[in-house]
């Protein structure tokens, strides 16, 4: 039942993001979740024991990417359907910084959870600290008062 509701809501959300001519009006995408949509965040967590940066993970992708599957995650495929130009970068990658995260980023982490008691090696709440200030900074620069 839960899967059916997820698919139904996901499909209606996808249709809402498409214009009448089929073109996407999506400019960015932010992913939150666990190993089902993790695209490699755990590679950069020193204390994490949940890593997928070795074979057989990534066999169909061509190399291990840190995803807990063979190829793209559901979030990667959804991003392609919505017209997001590239695969989203993982937030914990040192090269993901500054304005780069305004066009979309993947915060998902295998074995993580929302509650502080879920997994002490991965604290999801720590991942969000830089995001609000970057968004406010960008929006503040876009608004020009007379």
Mean pLDDT: 72
Structural class: mainly alpha
**Shape field:** globular
- Unreliable spans: 1-9
Total number of distinct structural domains? 1
Number of helices: 4
Question: What report would you give on this structure?
Answer:
This protein is mostly helical and 146 residues long. The chain has one domain (25-142). Helices cover 29% and strands 4% of the residues. The protein is built from 4 helices and 2 strands; from the N terminus they run αβαβαα. The chain has helices at residues 2-17, 74-82, 124-127, 130-142; strands at 29-31, 104-106. The chain has a two-stranded parallel sheet with strand order 1-2. The protein is globular, with a radius of gyration of 17 Å.
Summarize the structure.
The protein is mainly α and 146 residues long.
Quick tags:
4 helices, mainly alpha, 2 strands, 4% strand, 146 residues, two-stranded parallel sheet
Protein topology:
Elements (H helix, E strand, L loop, with lengths): L1 H16 L11 E3 L42 H9 L21 E3 L17 H4 L2 H13 L4
Parallel strand pairs: 1-2
């Amino acid at each position: 039942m839960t899967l059916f509701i997820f698919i139904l809501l996901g499909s209606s959300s996808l249709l809402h993001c498409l214009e009448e001519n089929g073109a996407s009006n999506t400019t960015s995408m932010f992913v939150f979740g666990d190993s089902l949509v993790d695209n490699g965040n755990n590679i950069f967590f020193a204390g994490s024991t949940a890593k997928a940066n070795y074979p057989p993970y990534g066999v169909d992708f061509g190399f291990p990417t840190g995803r807990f599957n063979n190829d793209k995650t559901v979030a990667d495929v959804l991003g392609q359907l919505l017209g997001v130009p590239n695969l989203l970068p993982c937030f914990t990658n040192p090269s993901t910084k500054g304005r780069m995260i305004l066009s979309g980023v993947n915060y998902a982490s295998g074995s993580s959870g929302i509650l502080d008691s879920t997994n002490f090696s991965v604290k999801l709440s720590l991942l969000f600290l830089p995001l609000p200030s970057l968004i406010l900074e960008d929006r503040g620069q876009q608004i020009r008062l007379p």
